[in-house]
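Appendix C: a fully annotated inverse folding record. The material below is reproduced so that readers can follow the format used throughout the book. The structure is listed first as C-alpha cells, followed by the designed sequence.
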C-alpha cells in the first residue's frame, strides 16, 4: 500500500482494544475494531461489558464479567508470548471500577514487552449532553479509577470537554482553558474532542502535544450518531503510529470521522454506517482546516 505522498506505508502493528461491546450498532469496540482492521491493524479485543445496543437507544441488559474473571483474563493476556507484537493499547468504557487495576497491569506488561508501544486512554465517563442533562454516566468510583489508575499511565488521553473538566477540576469554557487543563494531565498528547471552535456552527478537536497545540475544525452536524469519540481516538492513535506528525494525524482522523458522520446522517441512520461507508475510514475526501494555537505563557 502507498501513502498519498508516494512512499510505502510501514506494516501496521496489532493493537489491543479494551472497551465495551454492543450487539447492534457501531459504538465503542464493535465499530472501533472494524475500523482498525479495515485500515490494516490486527485488533485484539478485550470487552469490559456486553450490551445489546447503545444505552441511548433504550434500556438493555448489562453483562459484566465477575471481577476475578476479568482480572484473570487480563492476566492471561499479560503473559502472552505475542505481547511484544502490540504497537499500542487503547482503553475506553469500563464495566466497573474493579477493572481499572488489572487493565493497568496489562498496559504495563505491554510496555515492558514493547517499550515503543503507545497507550491511549479514552476516559469514557460522561458528557454535557447525557440523558440526565449532562454529567457522569458511570458511577463516580469508576470515573475515579480511570482518573487515578489509567490516565497517569497514558501517552495519549482523549477526553471530551466535560471529561477534561471533571478529571482536572478546572474550568473549560474557553479554548485556552481547555488547553491549560489538558497540559495539567501530564500526558505527552491530550486530544480534546469537543473544544470550543472559532468558527460558528463548527466543532473543534484540540490537541496539546509536545511541539505545541493544534486545532482541527469542521462543520457541526446536527444529531450525530454515537461513537465518534471512540473512532477519532483510534484513528489518531493509528496515524501517530504510522509516523504522521501531530497536525496531520489529527487532520486525517478528524476528516474521516466528519465524513463518516455526514454520510451516515444523510442516509438517515441512527448509527455510524461503518460497513456501507468504510472508505471514509480508509481515506476521507472531506476537507478539515487546522490551525496552530498560541498558548498563554505562565507568569514567573
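Designed amino acids, in order:
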Amino acid at each position: 500500500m502507498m501513502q498519498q505522498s508516494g512512499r510505502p506505508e510501514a506494516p501496521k502493528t496489532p493493537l489491543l482494544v479494551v472497551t465495551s461491546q454492543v450487539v447492534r450498532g457501531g459504538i465503542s469496540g464493535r465499530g472501533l475494531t472494524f475500523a482498525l482492521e479495515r485500515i490494516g491493524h490486527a485488533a485484539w479485543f478485550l470487552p469490559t461489558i456486553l450490551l445489546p445496543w447503545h444505552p441511548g437507544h433504550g434500556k438493555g441488559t448489562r453483562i459484566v464479567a465477575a471481577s476475578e474473571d476479568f482480572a484473570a483474563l487480563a492476566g492471561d493476556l499479560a503473559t502472552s508470548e505475542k505481547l511484544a507484537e502490540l504497537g499500542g493499547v487503547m482503553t475506553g468504557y469500563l464495566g466497573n471500577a474493579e477493572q481499572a487495576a488489572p487493565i493497568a497491569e496489562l498496559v504495563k506488561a505491554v510496555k515492558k514487552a514493547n517499550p515503543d508501544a503507545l497507550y491511549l486512554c479514552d476516559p469514557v465517563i460522561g458528557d454535557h449532553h447525557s440523558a440526565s442533562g449532562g454529567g457522569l454516566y458511570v458511577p463516580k468510583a469508576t470515573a475515579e479509577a480511570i482518573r487515578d489508575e489509567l490516565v497517569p499511565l497514558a501517552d495519549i488521553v482523549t477526553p471530551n470537554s466535560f471529561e477534561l473538566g471533571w478529571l482536572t477540576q478546572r474550568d473549560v469554557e474557553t479554548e485556552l482553558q481547555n488547553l491549560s487543563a489538558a497540559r495539567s494531565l501530564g500526558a505527552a498528547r491530550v486530544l480534546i474532542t469537543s473544544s470550543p471552535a472559532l468558527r460558528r456552527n463548527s466543532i473543534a478537536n484540540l490537541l496539546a502535544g509536545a511541539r505545541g497545540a493544534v486545532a482541527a475544525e469542521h462543520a457541526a452536524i446536527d444529531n450525530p450518531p454515537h461513537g465518534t469519540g471512540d473512532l477519532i481516538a483510534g484513528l489518531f492513535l493509528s496515524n501517530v503510529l504510522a509516523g504522521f506528525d501531530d497536525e496531520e494525524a489529527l487532520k486525517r482522523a478528524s476528516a474521516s470521522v466528519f465524513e463518516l458522520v455526514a454520510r451516515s446522517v444523510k442516509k438517515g441512520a441512527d448509527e455510524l454506517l461503518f460497513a456501507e461507508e468504510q472508505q471514509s475510514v480508509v481515506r476521507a475526501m472531506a476537507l478539515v482546516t487546522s490551525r496552530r494555537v498560541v498558548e498563554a505563557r505562565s507568569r514567573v
